[in-house]
Amino acid sequence: MTQNPKRYTITAALPYTNGPIHIGHLAGVYVPSDIYSRYLRLQGRDVLFVCGSDEHGVAISMKAKKEGITPQEVIDKYDGIIRKSFIDFGISFDNYSRTSAKIHHDTASEFFTTLYEKGDFIEQVTEQLYDAKADQFLADRFVIGTCPKCGNEEAYGDQCEKCGSTLNATDLINPKSTITGETPIMKSTKHWFLPLDRYEDFLKEWILVSHKNDWKPNVYGQVKSWIDGGLEPRAVTRDLDWGIDVPVPGAEGKKLYVWFDAPIGYISASKEWAAREGKEWEPYWKDQDTKLVHFIGKDNIVFHCIIFPAMLKAEGSYILPDNVPANEFLNLEGNKLSTSKNWAVWLHEYLEEFPGQQDVLRYALTSNAPETKDNDFTWKDFQARNNNELVAIYGNFINRVVVLTNKYYKGVVPTPNELSEVDEATLTELKAYPAVISSSVERYRFREALGELMNVARLGNKYLADEEPWKVIKDNPERVQTQMYVALQIAAALSSLCEPFLPFTATKLSRILKLESPLSWITISETSNLIVAGHQIGEAELLFAKIEDEEIQKQIDKLEATKTANKAENKVVEPQKEAIQFDDFSKMDLRVGTIIEATKMPKANKLLILKVDTGIDVRTIVSGIAESFKPEDIIGKKVTVLVNLAPRNLRGVESQGMILMTTNAEEKLVFVNPDADAANGETIN
To answer: Angle at the Cα of 399 (from 394 to 402), degrees rounded to 5?
Structure first.
């Protein structure tokens, strides 16, 4: 671990620009990295916090083909959406760049060339899948087939999303090109490989020995599993038409593999920042007094803990990450978040539907962060955390303090009198919180740190509830001056302590208290005079608003609509039956009818006894629809009836025909209805 670093370089995983940002990205990467960066800045540390759009690779090409636009149009569209979302949400990057920028192309090319000239790559000719019809080699995600491990028929060439196995495209059974649907052939192609096996001893010593006690168990465990399984050379180039050209002779038509180019984006983003700010970038990447921390999701652990460090080690002049505090995955309402299936809460849509409530989502995601295991986001939990915690605890305390100060003293902080033991104990406890919160943040336990922040608000609520200044004011106004002074010190401390977690709330509270600059955490821990007597505060404003059931139900309904749409899109249609002649069809007598009576079949859960007016007669039809319809709901329903079906005895009732039914996207039975103005007995032909 880097002790007492001079500076910090904080990176957040580069989001793919093939779609917007959703809450899984926030919970896994961007909220924790922002909390950490904001916290360090409040401590007066030198911080460089960088990120950028990941704009190369197969995901972009696939999106472009799907939308019928160019890759450049895809990245421009989503970079704009993502960039605005981060700004609106308060993610405090010092620089947010793009891997399509010239400075990144130059940096990645230079990095590759350095390793190439040092002889660090292996050059190999291998057999790869090739789509002859499309006249191109197939990247992993352009191949789909049967997983050899679990039999999933829709596994991709790099991974089976059903069983989670890592695959090579050539492992798939019955592979198909997603571009043309053709069966690909094998064709020779030359590529360059990074020999990870050469770095196995280094990685064992650096991670398995040196970081055994300070890296998160989920990160350490995944890295150990990979190293113990034996490392193999990994391709750093690909046959693609979108990406950074491989800058060596004989590499025409080949691009840098996105996993090689993307992490170099942290370096190019740092260079871009330094050029803009008139600073040097190298100390943030090459000085041993710099602490480098990567914030990622668990799907990027191998790239940031094995592959990128091997690249940095091979280059020779860069520092290695001090920590990679990767989070697990966040699920949504019990199901895995999915961009392709639109099963997500998109950040830009959240900000439209909950304007001004960025901190509510930050709070909900941090307090339920998947730091050690996968967690589940539900709208009901989001509502409860807002109403029962932010509103009822934090907001309630601040509102009471500000309202009472304005009521009793016209908004002027009162001069305290002699402090009681309770006052002294409360202020002493308050002084301890900066160190307590710091300890949790420094160990990347942001959920724990947020809990301690809320304990500061609880301290204030308990103090007011126990002291009851609204009662004491009648008989002992001098005592109330001291009580309100103490309560205001807690409020002032909250305005600074909450800034890493709830930055918009911190700004609003500072404005209410008319604090021109944030209080330093050292000041909070060393003095009880945070907001001085005679200081004028502002009028009360609600920090948080209660979220009503109707707002939450709207979001739940929105997800249910998505689920229904997905079912409809993925519904497997029965194949056409064997061909028949017109004479076969004409034997069926289909008529318009109306249900005039409906009763349940005794001792049968699935059967209804229907009386149907077919226009020919009124007849009895037994139908297995009792689990889908109540008898009283279908009386008067127009239906399509097969009237010349041979009668059949069902539980002692003769059924004289059949009602035509089908199922909808939700797998529910629905009637195949004739038009409402069709008369009973009309034939269907």
So the answer is: 125
